[in-house]
Amino acid sequence: MTRIDFAFGAPDRLRAACQAARKRYLAGQRLVVYCADGARLAAFDRMLWAFDDISFVPHVLANDPLAPDTPVVLTAADPQAAAGNADGETWLLNLDDDCPPAYDGFARLLEIVSDDPADRQAARQRWRAYQAAGHAPHSHDLAGRTA
Fold first, then answer.
1. For 98-119, how does the pLDDT look when each residue is reduced to its tens digit (9 = 90+)?
2. What three-state secondary structure class fits 8?
3. Measured between alpha carbons, how far is residue 126 from residues 60, 70, 87, 99, 106 in Å?
């Protein structure tokens, strides 16, 4: 069963997603980034190029011919199709407001949530949807606050 991790309290959701993508890349882990909102996905794509002056995270859109050989693939469509011939260890990073389709085929699903009230509300809906599907999501506090 897919492990689902929510990281709450990100000051900037896309920047935190870039940092997560870099960590996955440096760990040698393949990552599919899903977001049905094309504008948000394009903003994430641009940020991956510029979020850190000394780092490079190789990434392409899912329809790029290099996608099967690139560690980070971005898609607004079916994330399973973007994963290609993944070995079952591919991770999925969701930047959409809704649950991604076909997420059960991934080893892990990452959800990054900012302190923005609308983002938090959408995350609560996704959390409940995952629970209703039989998952037990894990929560992580990026801000280091104690509950």
1. 999 989 889 999 999 999 999 9
2. strand
3. 26, 28, 26, 6, 17
